[in-house]
Each structure stands twice: as C-alpha cells, then as structure tokens.
Amino acid sequence: MLFRSSQRQRLLPGRLRRVAVPNSAASTMNRELHIIGFQVGRETYGVPITSLHEIVRVPEITPVPDAPAHMEGVINLRGKIVSVIDLRKRLGQKDIAPSKRNRILVVEHDGRLCGLMVDSASEVLKIPAGDIQPSTAVFQESGQNCVTGLGRFRGRLIVLLDMARLLEFSGVQPRSAAGVDGSPSSATELPAADSQANAASAPGRNS
Predict the structure, then answer these.
(1) Within-domain flag for 17
(2) Is position 14 within any domain?
(3) pLDDT per residue over 133-188, tens digit each?
(4) Average pLDDT of 195-203?
(5) Contact present, 150 and 132 (Cβ < 8 Å)
(6) Phi, psi values for residue 152, rounded to 5°
C-alpha cells in the first residue's frame, strides 16, 4: 500500500517527524571511517583498517646498512622479509627505550607489506564522516605531509595517516608490478644493495 507524503507524516510520531531528514543527508551521516588506532608519543594515530594485515609483537630486527634513520631494519615474518619503520623517528618524536607494549603494525599497500613500529596499538575505531576534518597547515609545515585529516572520537583527536605518503616519504617504494607467477609480491621492497644479503640470512629460507 502506497502513502502520500502527507499521509506518512501523519503516521509518524511527533518526535520522529521533527528529526526526519532526506535520504541523502541520512546516508552521509551514517557513513563511518573504520581505522586501527595506535599511540606514538602522546598522540593517537590511525590508518584505514583495510590496509592492516596483522599486528605482531616486536621480534628480532635486523639492521639494514645505509638505511634512513627511521628505517629500523627488517624482520622475518613467516618467511617474508618485511621492512620496519620506526614511527617515532618518522614523525619526529623523541626516542625512548623500548617497551613491552610496543607493537608492529604490518600494513599492506600496493601489494607490499611493511611494518610500522608503534608505542602501542589500541582497537578498531569507528569515526563518523561528519567528525573528520582536513589536515591543517601545522602538519604540513612540520614536515608531516602524510597526515590527511583529524578525526574526533570520544573527546579526543585522532591523527589520520595516508599510507601512500607515509611509505613514499619513508623511503619504501611500493611496487605494483606483478611477480614472476603473476601475483603481486607480499614483502616490501628493500634497498637494492642489501635485499639479497638479508634474504639469504633470514631463517627458514632455503636457496
């Protein structure tokens, strides 16, 4: 049975009539950004949950000679060599002693895996689209051009990071080309001078 708009209004309770909004506005209000939140220093950051591969405790990290200061080294993740970026150094935070709460966020971008070492990882945060603001000039001037916006979540600000910019300016060049078997490689591209040496020294890999 079809109702005209005037009939539908009479059927709605008075309280619901007052808050009724057009479908387009309602869909915008209902959109949420799902991110994984983590701490670096006193700030809470977030990356899209779709880019997260897994979260692991900090294992033994093998240093890479002549790598940038924020490149902590590489880890062997079940037979895959993954570069690890220290986000404290990458974001200009003061260096502190390692803690048991430290975690490595293994993220995937453009078919590559990369590890982001953080002070601690929290939970999945759902931020409404209306609570997200564009990045301010302060982050651009401080060299944090990987910041795409700020989200409000339960009274605190979440700094949202752009994975492409974060990895690009960290010296990690994602490769979109397919591997030998036609599928994209899962490990992050290492500096050319050291990739073969580190791959050969990784445990559990046979020549």
Answers:
(1) no
(2) no
(3) 987 665 555 555 788 889 999 888 999 998 888 887 555 554 443 343 434 444 54
(4) 43
(5) yes
(6) -95, 125
Comparing CA positions, the residue from 35, 15, 40 lying closest to residue 131 is 35
Tell me the average pLDDT across 56-69.
Answer: 93
Q: Which residues on neighbouring strands pair with residue 37, listed in sequence order?
A: 46
β-sheet bridge partners, residue 160: 46, 149
pTM of the entire structure?
0.66
How far, in Å, CA of 82 to CA of 77, rounded?
7
CATH number at residue 187: 2.40.50.180
Domain total in the chain: 1
Q: Which amino acid is at 17?
A: R
Domain presence at residue 172: yes
CA 19 to chain centre: 36
Extract the tokens encoding 52: 């997260």
- Rounded to 5 degrees, what angle do the CA atoms 104, 86, 33 make? 60
Q: Which residue has the tokens 């949202």?
A: 160
Q: Does residue 122 belong to any structural domain of this protein?
A: yes
